[in-house]
Specification:
It is built from ten helices and eleven strands. Strands 2, 3, 4, 7 and 8 form a five-stranded parallel sheet that branches. It has a three-stranded antiparallel sheet with strand order 1-10-11, covered by helices on one side. The chain is globular and about 45 Å long.
Length: 288
């Protein structure tokens, strides 16, 4: 099976080169042992927050640097009525997550965002009104991203440098706009489709079957069934030995700097194939 994976990888790479596709490698290199103990706890904001915005205070770092296995839980479309419940579950289990907020919800949920951020979670951009970046004009993409970042900055004092495109819809044109604005695009590697299947047990089972080191899990904090599922998912992931980290923490402690205009799907060693219409990530190089 491993031999077939390697052969498949080689064939795909050759085909990609022939059609002029850019192949980019995102390599994970975790420090180990004394290297972790001696590594300075750098200001995450310096690396992952929008350089165009005001310099923010450092987010509180964990008592000790996270180590693999790590998982990034991410929540889209909020804030909503269930966000605080999820924040409490994370706090009770010494976990953190990234909340990709919709800009038109930010001001009326100011206190929720302040509380979420104060608990060490990451607040990130999910557009102003959840429009598809593939259908929107360049000017509209700029407006959607800028309005949301401005609203976030009004609440927590700075704007993020990561965006999750609504529906995960992002083509080469959209990536070029994000690159010009200074934003990296964060996708996902696990999608339990909690927006479609409002079933806490199904959400739990799907995540447990597919989770692995470096997973980025997309969820939605506007659904009560998702919050209910998290009462099982969050403590179980901790029991399994996973550190629950923000997206920016995952890449920071993997020694990977997020680059504007790039799409990221997970925090482990992968091959990313950049096509005109989409970023496809399929080939995972396993060392198990």
């Amino acid at each position: 099976m491993r031999f077939l994976r390697i052969v498949t990888c080689a064939v795909l790479c050759i085909a990609v080169m022939l059609i002029g596709v850019t192949v980019s490698f995102v390599w994970r290199d975790f420090p180990q042992g004394d290297a972790i103990a001696s590594s300075p706890q750098l200001d995450l904001c310096r690396d992952f927050l929008n350089p165009l915005g005001p310099t923010p205070p450092a987010l509180p770092l964990p008592d000790s640097p996270p180590r693999p296995p790590m998982v990034a839980l991410t929540f889209d479309d909020g804030p909503g009525r269930y966000t605080n419940r999820i924040v409490d579950l994370l706090y009770q289990n010494n976990g953190r997550a990234t909340f990709f907020v919709t800009g038109n919800r930010v001001r009326r949920n100011r206190n929720t965002i302040l509380r979420t951020h104060a608990h060490g979670n990451e607040i990130a951009n999910h557009s102003w009104s959840h429009v598809s970046f593939r259908r929107a004009s360049n000017a509209e993409i700029r407006r959607q991203v800028n309005l949301t970042s401005e609203a976030i900055a009004e609440v927590i004092g700075y704007s993020p440098a990561i965006v999750r495109p609504p529906f995960g819809a992002l083509d080469a044109r959209g990536r070029a706009v994000l690159e010009d604005l200074g934003y990296a695009a964060i996708m996902w590697s696990i999608d339990p489709e909690d927006w479609r299947f409002r079933d806490p047990d199904r959400i739990y089972r799907y995540i447990m079957r597919n989770v692995r080191d470096g997973s980025i899990i997309v969820l939605h904090d506007i659904h009560g069934t998702t919050a209910q599922a998290m009462t099982r998912v969050i403590p179980r992931l901790v029991e399994m030995g996973f550190d629950l980290v923000t997206v920016s923490e995952m890449f920071h402690y993997s020694n990977v700097r997020l680059e504007p205009g790039r799409s990221y799907f997970r925090g482990t060693r992968t091959i990313a194939l950049s096509l005109d219409s989409a970023m496809i990530m399929y080939v995972k190089y396993s060392q198990e």
